[in-house]
Design a protein that fits this description.
Length: 376
């Protein structure tokens, strides 16, 4: 059974069979937040669909948490509009917004049981005990903690404490759940397991999740869409595939996983000229002579012997192996090519695969479609 969301004006009936609303669950229009002379969030415009798992991703200090806090009502914007399901919220206090927030610290009451922690918000709203008990039981079932109602937080693992914090937020039937790096306190193995559980939970409850993280893999694993932020600006919004495969800026390409950068000059439709004068293919239109930066992911490239002729239509440039790194399931080659560019190439560690050593002259090949052309 899905929780029933409540607007600031009162509860709204919604069932899983109904189509998702065309009105964005969260809409930010021209949001600016200044702290004295510092602009923490700079003209952010964003629409998050009803039922979407949306992640705000970026390095520390990029403005993602401040943006989340403005949606929650814990900060007010200096300029702009915040709408939740079409209702203006920019100046409403937190308790008048149909949202709940889960923080990294969980903030559980140590002297209360699991059930008491989850019920606390309902008790503050003076919900009748029969309804309160039903909703607490429903929320604990959603997060797979049935049977642990009487335990105290200190008797739970980190992952279980995180689930209690989620249940406490979900029991209020929010329209939007805000999550501020909730997995950051967990060890790596548990964090990876909880990523999948959190995505499954979001799909079961069917409400909008807005998730803040600096962990690229976390965002790629869980999100329907990702917004990448830097220095207060929203640089790019797209699906995980779009963000990874077709980054628009150097910052986005560099922040989302490992990549290679190749300086080049536009040489005419579909062609670019590298710094050594060699021309290769790239998915580009525009004005010849324009300076560009290309980016290609390491796993999209291959290292082959120079005596092996490249396949037709494949980009191929020669270089010298600087280093080979053994990673168990993969091999990474660092190859120096013309123009003081060092390319990183990742090969799957397959039986019988030819290996190259430091100093070997090789050819680096890739399909032109794997190339992304970055904005200036």
């Amino acid at each position: 059974m899905n929780p029933t969301p409540a607007t600031a004006e009162g509860p709204v009936s919604q069932t899983a069979a109904q189509p998702a609303s065309t009105t964005p669950a969260v809409e930010l229009v021209g949001i600016v937040k200044r702290f004295d002379e510092v602009t923490a969030v700079d003209d952010v415009n964003l629409a998050i669909a009803d039922g979407e798992f949306f992640s705000l991703l970026g390095p520390s200090g990029c403005g993602k948490t401040t943006t989340l806090r403005m949606i929650a009502g814990l900060e007010f914007p200096t300029e702009g509009s915040i709408r939740l399901h079409g209702h203006e919220m920019a100046l409403r206090p937190p308790n008048k917004r149909p949202v709940n927030t889960v923080f990294q610290s969980y903030a559980l009451f140590p002297h209360m049981s699991v059930a008491q922690n989850v019920a606390f918000g309902l008790q503050m709203q003076k919900v009748a005990k029969s309804e309160l008990d039903d909703r607490v039981a429903e929320s604990l079932k959603l997060v797979q903690l049935t049977g642990m109602e009487k335990r105290k937080p200190k008797q739970l693992s980190g992952g279980q404490q995180q689930r209690v914090a989620l249940a406490r937020a979900l029991v209020n039937h929010p329209q939007v759940l805000l999550l501020d790096e909730p997995l950051g306190a967990l060890d790596l193995k548990l964090r990876k397991a909880m990523q999948l559980e959190l995505k499954e939970l979001q799909q079961r409850v069917g409400i909008t999740f807005v998730y803040v993280t600096h962990d690229q893999e976390e965002a790629l694993t869980m999100s329907d869409r990702i917004g990448v932020m830097s220095e207060g600006k929203l640089l790019q919004v797209g699906t995980p595939e779009e963000i990874y495969e077709q980054p628009r800026t150097r910052m986005v390409a560099d922040f989302i996983g490992e990549t290679n950068f190749l300086p080049a000059t536009h040489a005419g439709t579909g062609r670019v000229r590298l710094v050594n004068g060699e021309e290769i293919d790239a998915p580009i239109d525009g004005v010849a002579g324009q300076e560009l930066t290309l980016t290609v992911r390491p796993e999209k490239m291959a290292v082959v012997a120079t005596e092996v002729p490249p396949d037709p239509g494949v980009n191929a440039i020669e270089g010298i192996v600087h280093r080979r790194v053994y990673l168990g399931n993969a091999l990474t080659y660092e190859v120096d090519v013309a123009g003081d560019v060092r390319l990183h190439v990742r090969h799957e560690n397959a039986p019988g695969q030819q290996r190259f050593d430091t100093g070997d002259r090789v050819r680096v090949c890739w399909d032109p479609s794997a190339t992304a052309v970055l904005e200036a």
